[in-house]
Specification:
Layout: H1 3-10, E1 12-16, H2 21-34, E2 38-42, H3 48-56, E3 62-66, H4 71-80, E4 84-86, H5 92-100, E5 104-106, E6 108-109, H6 112-120, E7 125-128, H7 131-134, H8 136-143, E8 150-154, H9 162-168, E9 172-175, H10 177-180, H11 187-203
Helix pairs in contact: 2-11, 3-4, 8-9
Length: 206
């Protein structure tokens, strides 16, 4: 399954941003045990490429690099086994290197100008960031001139607003703090709540 197919199926990417690699490893294992299958390990996490290599070797997991700030990050992520690349911003050089290496590019965008630049550089999936600052109504308005783009909402997504984001047109979410903020013991409950609400909304149930 490609990274895009995984995004469309599960609609949730767990963001691993921790102070130590050991914390990142423990969190990722707990998230996987709770049902998460797509992981973004950020470059701000120590030994990030070792973590990407470790988890990309696990069957059934889709792994990417987050906070990719340079083509060098993309190259290292590819060598480690990543299949997608996320950035908090739009950088044509990062997008180009990502596509050259046959990885899925997901640049961060905030304005219509960002969207246009990202699409011109070849990106197909865009990350609205920080999503909580703009809100679903903003995304719905920005989408209209760019119907070809696919979207992830990242930053401030909660179980309570999943329905609104889907209505605005996202295919999924990048989620960090809402899954990890309570520590390892709370991960199963938090993951279960997100997965249940995503399934409920996608199924059309009220």
């Amino acid at each position: 399954m490609s990274a895009l197919e995984e995004f469309e199926k599960s609609s949730i990417v767990a963001i691993i941003r921790t102070k130590t690699s050991a914390e990142g490893r423990s969190a990722a294992h707990a998230l996987h045990s709770a049902g998460i299958t797509s992981f973004e390990f950020t470059t701000t996490t120590p030994d990030v490429f070792d973590l990407i290599e470790e988890f990309s070797a696990i069957k059934g997991i889709t792994v990417g690099v987050g906070t990719a700030m340079s083509p060098a990050h993309v190259i290292s992520a590819k060598k480690a086994g990543a299949t997608f690349v996320l950035s908090p911003h739009t950088d044509a050089a990062v997008i180009k290197k990502t596509l050259d290496l046959n990885l899925l590019s997901v640049p961060g965008v905030a304005t219509p100008t960002d969207v246009a630049r990202a699409l011109q550089a070849g990106a197909k999936v865009l990350k609205l960031f920080p999503a909580s600052h703009f809100g679903p109504a903003y995304l719905k308005a920005v989408r209209d001139p760019f119907p070809e783009a696919k979207w992830l909402a990242t930053g401030g997504v909660s179980v309570e607003n999943i329905k609104d984001w889907f209505a605005a047109g996202v295919l999924g979410f990048g989620v960090g703090g809402p899954l990890l903020g309570g520590g390892i013991p709370e991960i199963p409950t938090r993951v279960a709540a997100f997965i249940a609400e995503i399934k409920r909304v996608k199924s059309g149930k009220k």
